[in-house]
Each structure stands twice: as structure tokens, then as C-alpha cells.
Specification:
Elements (H helix, E strand, L loop, with lengths): L1 H11 L4 H42 L3 E9 L2 H9 L4 E15 L4 E9 L1 H4 L9 E3 L8 E5 H7 L6 E12 L2 E15 L9 E5 H8 L5 E8 L5 H12 L4 E5 L1 H43 L1 H9 L5 H44 L18 H27 L3 H5 L3
Parallel strand pairs: 3-8, 5-7
Antiparallel strand pairs: 1-9, 1-10, 2-3, 2-6, 2-9, 4-7, 5-8, 6-7
Length: about 400
């Protein structure tokens, strides 16, 4: 085996123009295939990371809505928090509304929250700049896309209009209130298109709820098992008083699509690696034909059958290993360049290339498990591919070869 290793590595370092050209060609094809696979898997993994950290980190895993406004919400809140499947819960007031300036209007989903409680449910404040919400100040946090549409910034004022009418001696008017923009929430997702947060007490005054709330936002211990937590909550607080839904209702199909896409792309792009492995077969066959004299001499000198097999297996593994390493490095470099250059490309083209998707940026994430799976798949296919030329080398008849030398 040591001799086979030395012979194989000597062939890999050969300076013969033909063999060197064939080896470089095989290595380049394999590296290109692996780089493509690494880059695509990194993009899909980036979408999954953004989904978990940004979207699922902000949206409530479970929304519990009262069939009528909930009086004495703290009692129900304590019951929900006591469940083992629940990591956090907060009472909320929510509903549709309009934000308006002198010239522009934007529809939003209004959510009245208690900043002291809501941190156990959402990572909202990690993505918000500006000042915190305070009761009685009538401050509002708005999504980055909402702020862009209204062309407002922190410190400006907007009018909040509710789809509820107020009767006055002068007629019936929509209920509205002037708010101060205390901060902008920038999550880099479509949540920024319709988000508006204010203090729960201010929202309750707008909706004339007193101390009542519309429902509760709940964070489960495991986002993927939010359905189990929802059933426990409904069974505890009563289905006749509350209805509950999970994030699967609005985002579940997207999450499942990301998982399926990740596996399918890995399978399909692995075919590129298989094509590169077939290219390695043809290259090794040509090398075998060029080294027929060397193989015949080794066999004539008493070399066992397994010696040429081992030598060409080592040669194939050397080419494959170099190709996989170069491909992984190229894929990582391509991913870093694409992530850094994507905002520049959008600015150059003057259009948001991913504006219609839930994640509006190009996310890249390199997972060690993905890189290991890609490297193992590529090396496995290439080692299998080397068996054919290695076995062909072992089957050569030294007498037939040497009589023509």
C-alpha cells in the first residue's frame, strides 16, 4: 500500500503535458460542480436562518384571540404562562389601521404591546432603532418599508386612522390620532411592509377597551411544535372563549418549501458532481493507456494485481481531494461576494430584486454539516468512479504490452 501511495502521488505530480492537462481538466470540472453545490446550499441555508432568526424570532408562534374583548387579561395570561410548552406570553391589542401623512397613506397591522412583557415573545426590539414605547406618549414603531412609503423618519409625526367611526355634532368621522414616530423596525423581510407597534394602553384607548385586550401573543418552547402548544392552550383556557392559530397557518407552507427545496437542490446538483466524476473516469482511462508500459513493468517485476489498483485509486483520490477543496473554497468565496454585492447590484439596477419575497435580502449561511455532506458525496462519487480505470489497469496483460515496447 505504501508503494501504491508513492506511485499514485508521483502520477498526480507528473509533469507530462498530456497527463497534467487531463488532471487539471478533471480537477477544474469537479471544483466547478462542488462550488455550485456549495453556493446553492448556502443560499437555501441562509433563507432558513433568516426564517428562524428574523421571521420566527419576531412573529408570535401562537396567536390567541378572544371571541370578545378579554377582561382581566392578567388572569388568563398567568394560566397560559404556566403551561410547560409556553416560553413566554404577552397581552396585545391589535387590528387593521391606516398611517397617513399630508401626501401619503399606508395600510398597517396595528399591534398594541407592553414592552416589558413582549420581550419574552418576540425579538422585535433587537431590530428597532429609536426610543422605547411609553404609555401616554402616543409613540409608534413602524416597519422600514412603511417608513419608506410614507417618507418619514424617527421624530416625525403621522396620523393613525382606525376603521371605526365616531359620531360628532358635525357628522360621523373615522377615529384618528396623531402619533410620534419613535422608531423604525428593519428586519429585512416583508414584515416591514405592514408593521406598526404602539403601547398597549394607548391602543386600548384608541379602541376604547379600557383594561381589556383583544388576545395574547405566545412563544412556544419549540417553534416546530407550536401546534401541540396551541392545543394545550385551547384546552386550558376554553375553546368557547378563545380561538388560537399558529405561525404554520401563514408561514408553514414557506417553511416546508424551504426544507423540500434544500433537499431537492442537493439531489439535483449532486448530478453535476456525478458528471464531473464521469469526466474523472475518462481522464483516468487515458492516463492508464499512457502508463501501460509502467504497469506492465511493475507486474513483470512481481508487483501484485492490487498494486496498480491502489496506485490509480490514490491518483483519483488526489485529483478528487484537490477538486473538492478548491470547489468548497470557491463556493464560499462566491457566496461572500454575492452577499456583499447584492445591495450594490440592487442599487445599480435601481430595483429591489427580491422585493416580492418574504426575505428581501440575499442571505448566505455556510453550515459545517452541509459542507461535510457535500465533501463526502463528492469524494464518494469520485472514488467509485476510479474503480473502473483502476480495475482496467490491473487487467492489463504484461506480455501483450511489452511486446510492442
Amino acid at each position: 500500500m505504501l508503494l501504491a501511495l508513492r506511485i499514485g502521488m508521483r502520477y498526480a505530480r507528473s509533469r507530462r503535458s498530456f497527463i497534467s492537462f487531463v488532471s487539471v481538466l478533471s480537477l477544474a470540472g469537479l471544483a466547478l460542480s462542488v462550488a455550485t453545490l456549495v453556493f446553492v446550499q448556502a443560499v437555501v441555508a441562509g433563507f432558513e436562518r433568516e426564517m428562524n432568526e428574523r421571521v420566527l424570532g419576531i412573529v408570535p408562534h401562537i396567536t390567541v384571540s378572544g371571541r370578545v374583548p378579554v377582561q382581566a387579561p392578567e388572569e388568563t395570561l398567568n394560566v397560559i404562562r404556566a403551561l410547560p410548552e409556553v416560553a413566554g406570553a404577552s397581552a396585545v391589542v391589535e387590528g387593521p389601521a391606516l398611517l397617513a401623512t399630508a401626501e401619503r397613506v399606508a395600510g398597517v397591522r396595528l399591534t398594541g404591546i407592553d414592552p416589558r412583557q413582549y420581550g419574552t415573545v418576540s425579538r422585535l426590539f433587537e431590530f428597532a432603532n429609536g426610543r422605547a414605547l411609553q404609555a401616554g406618549r402616543f409613540n409608534v414603531l413602524i416597519g422600514a418599508k412603511v417608513a419608506e412609503r410614507l417618507q418619514v423618519a424617527v421624530g416625525d409625526h403621522v396620523a393613525l386612522v382606525l376603521p371605526q367611526a365616531t359620531a360628532t355634532p358635525l357628522g360621523v368621522f373615522a377615529r384618528q390620532k396623531r402619533f410620534h414616530v419613535a422608531g423604525v423596525v428593519d428586519t429585512g423581510s416583508q414584515l416591514d411592509r405592514s408593521a406598526a407597534y404602539l403601547h398597549r394602553r394607548d391602543a386600548a384607548r384608541l379602541y376604547r377597551l379600557g383594561n381589556a385586550v383583544h388576545g395574547f401573543h405566545v412563544r412556544s418552547e419549540d417553534a416546530l411544535r407550536a401546534g401541540d402548544a396551541r392545543r394545550s392552550i385551547v384546552a386550558t383556557v376554553g375553546a368557547h372563549r378563545f380561538r388560537a392559530s399558529t405561525w404554520f397557518r401563514s408561514l408553514g407552507n414557506l417553511y416546508a418549501a424551504i426544507q423540500i427545496t434544500r433537499n431537492m437542490l442537493f439531489l439535483l446538483l449532486s448530478l453535476l458532481v456525478a458528471v464531473a466524476a464521469f469526466n474523472l473516469v475518462s481522464s483516468l482511462v487515458m492516463i492508464v493507456n499512457q502508463r501501460r508500459g509502467d504497469i506492465a513493468m511493475l507486474r513483470t517485476m512481481g508487483g501484485p494485481t492490487r498494486l496498480p489498483i491502489g496506485a490509480f485509486m490514490v491518483l483519483g483520490a488526489a485529483i478528487a481531494g484537490a477538486g473538492v477543496m478548491v470547489g468548497i473554497g470557491a463556493g464560499i468565496g462566491l457566496g461572500l461576494i454575492a452577499e456583499a454585492g447584492f445591495p450594490w447590484l440592487e442599487e445599480l439596477l435601481g430595483t429591489p430584486l427580491m422585493g416580492e419575497y418574504l426575505i428581501t435580502r440575499l442571505p448566505i449561511a455556510f453550515a459545517a454539516a452541509d459542507l461535510g455532506r457535500i465533501a463526502a458525496t463528492a469524494m464518494g462519487l469520485c472514488l467509485l468512479a476510479t474503480l473502473v480505470p483502476a480495475w482496467r489497469a490491473a487487467r492489463l496483460n504484461p506480455a501483450d504490452v511489452l511486446q510492442h515496447e
